[in-house]
Amino acid sequence: MWQAFEAERAALLPYAGRFDGFHAVPAAVSSTCLVRFDNNRYSVTASALGRPVEVRAYAERVEIRQDGRIVGEHARGFGRNQTVFDPWHYVPVLARKPGALRNGAPFKGWVLPAALDRIRRKFAGSADGDRQMVEILTAVLRDGLSAVEAACAEALREGVHSADVVLNILARQREPAAPVTILTPESLRLRHEPVADCARYDSLRRAP
């Protein structure tokens, strides 16, 4: 085998990176935002519900697209009857069913960043804790995970953990920065400030 390899070495092409080929098949989205492929089920974002998708199966991952947009991406499962969830796909649904955050299948064992997890644990004993946590999680879809994580950390440093406080911090961060004050050089300052005097205009009209 080594002799055959040496004999063919000169004709071998240089390595150009991994082969990223895929097998594409059409699929339907179930009422639970799942797509079946190769005897397994993969979640997609809730906005994909009701319209067909394309499943692209790569060697190590499954990519699900709708109208050219990626609506789900997971490590490929090679077992049978496995269900692979991405909890973020179901966050929009939580607005209608906040209680699913505690017992819904997509959220079991969900590992959140440290500050978000601390706030979730503080909400555990609150009557409206699920609703408040859902409001914070929904903000991630708009502001991004890192911004919400930072807002949660800031709220905890201040000794509070309500959703209103976290959302207020995020709102302040979205406000545009105050404009920079430009100092006018002395050489450009007006010697005589303009005066709003219509009589001056009338005098110009009467001039010969």
- The coarse silhouette is extended
Got a strand count?
7
Beta-strand content estimate: 15-25%
Distance linking N and C termini: 109 Å
Q: Helical residue percent?
A: 25-40%
Tell me about the largest β-sheet: 4 strands, antiparallel
What is the N-to-C succession of helices and strands? HEEEEEEEHHHHHHH
Total domains, how many? 2
pLDDT averaged residue by residue? 90
- Which secondary-structure class do the elements indicate? alpha+beta
Widest sheet: strand ordering: 1-4-5-6
The unreliable regions are none
Rg over C-alpha atoms, rounded to the nearest angstrom: 30 Å
- Our count of helices gives 8
Quickly list its features.
208 residues; alpha+beta; 2 domains; 4-stranded antiparallel sheet; 3-stranded mixed sheet; 8 helices; 36% helix; extended
How does the SSE layout of this entry go?
Layout: H1 2-8, E1 23-27, E2 34-37, E3 40-43, E4 53-57, E5 61-66, E6 69-75, E7 83-84, H2 91-94, H3 100-103, H4 114-123, H5 129-143, H6 145-157, H7 163-174, H8 198-206
Parallel strand pairs: 3-7
Antiparallel strand pairs: 1-4, 2-3, 4-5, 5-6
Helix pairs in contact: 4-5, 4-6, 5-6, 5-7, 6-7
